[in-house]
């Protein structure tokens, strides 16, 4: 840290010398500040009193110089009596004032009056340049991992330039709203949408537009009769050799921006039997959305039609689009059909949707990018999926992106057409099913988005938050105000007020207007314009009595229905999908490498996983089914309690029989041992008697009687021992029986005893 306390003044001859001198002083100060200890080292140095003294002296000098800077900026206040954050803000304010003074002085001295006027217009928000300023924003898909150990990995990922890992947002800074130049006025009212078609070419039934008899107020489809009678021609149901596409350089590109050019494209398209069509749409700065571009490709030419300038004149294309002899090829036409009806009054007859064909073939992925990679070996550039298609003139990158969507589509259609016939073993039933699905898509009619009293509940359910009645009232009123404002301003609801900001305002219920602005980052323009109205809605919500509210069952059911866009769709989880890929429905589980593992789920006959669901008419069949289920390790066996009791009884009888045999063998062994011991004792007594006979002169009959009496006594002892052993064994056996039979038999025995006692009491009475 420098000890030089001199004040810098402009005394040099030139301004450059002063700048160099000031930069050298700043470098010294930065080096000195970087050399100071930090964190643990600073705590260690602060233990020494000399370090603290030097530190306090330097702090006083720095504070004095900072106070001088603040005074030079003519800002009132003492910097010494403020916190660190307040000191920093005060220095920023002083620096801003210095820079403003310098810029104003240079502006007056050096710049010409014309440039001054242009800068003043730009400062005032007046745009005199009609050119569109493009803004390209890139975002990497890879995320930085946490941890200090990842420094080297992060450097490697930052240096790698993989174009597939970036997504570009191409937008315009000063795009004029195309709705202002439309001849037909956009109707965002909740009234039902009415078709604007005035002339019906290629008609079987005359044009008639009327409300249908359903509960909804929806007008009928003008070409409903023609679509019902449509059947694909024999040429479309036959295998053909796929016609290879031309390269983009060899294929001419025709841009149609004028009314005279429409006659050229009409004459050209009549010479073809197949065309590919796609649309580009914008929905952020429009309530219902705008069709910005139409791409049409033939085998020889690519067309780009500006649907913003020719919006009211493109209905003449119905001569081609409704002609049943010309096949129209789309990919994912559910939205395109509705956009054509709403904006251009165009309808489609005889369509082939490659998305439906890929679904019938059960391909692993259904996106157009996958079809291009698989059949054309082309990796499409999908960087500009979020581009603003209102930009005029269109950049070359967007034009190339739009051409790729239709340029290869006819060749892909030929391959899918042949594959559908091969899958059906030469039959055309699956191919006809694809045409039927495509025709049903063409029968769709556009409907306006309608707001209802329970529209906010879907967003509330998805947020998984618990609101009281005040917050729910604010959420409902804000949701209603957002819908009304979006309709009147012709902007999307997300542009007026995004969902997360709406929920944040309804949850916090700010008391002041600044609190409403604090809930929004960045602040939407329409929120600033209608801040007073929003503040009144929130104050009215705060005045509501605090009551615990419970949503009705009808509201819960309707909110759950609104969350499900398609009842047949599979549950999408982002963790199960690779990057930049789109998964299809009903994929088989590839757990086996054999080719037979790819079996359709529709061909698999479902079998119960538990045997209780098996239909068994008799006990033998039930036993056989149980034996078969035992052989299969994956099948769960279910046996009722009564069947389990019946099957356990023979097992218990066998165990009892084995125990009896075991007890008898043990009793025989004990008897043999006792007899053995008795014989040994008799032999020993005989030896003693023989000795005593020699000594004493007793008669022989007395000796025989004593021997017989001893043998009888020994037999009695053996019988008593065996009986006692058998009794103990029987007791143990009874205990085991009681344990095996369970508490139910014990209960039955108790009931019998109670009945006997009751019978005895009755007899005594």
TrEMBL record:
Q: Where is it located?
A: Nucleus
Going by the UniProt record, its keywords in alphabetical order are: Exonuclease, Exosome, Hydrolase, Nuclease, Nucleus, rRNA processing
SMART domains listed in its UniProt record: 35EXOc (SM00474), HRDC (SM00341)
Domain HRDC, residue spans: 468-548
Superkingdom per UniProt: Eukaryota
Pfam annotation, one family: HRDC
**GO BP, one example?**
exonucleolytic trimming to generate mature 3'-end of 5.8S rRNA from tricistronic rRNA transcript (SSU-rRNA, 5.8S rRNA, LSU-rRNA)
PROSITE patterns with a match to the protein in the record? HRDC
Primary location? nucleus
Family recorded in the similarity comment: Belongs to the exosome component 10/RRP6 family.
What is the protein's name according to its record?
Answer: Exosome complex component 10 homolog
Q: What is the organism of origin for this protein?
A: Ceratosolen solmsi marchali
Gene symbol of the encoding locus: LOC105360026
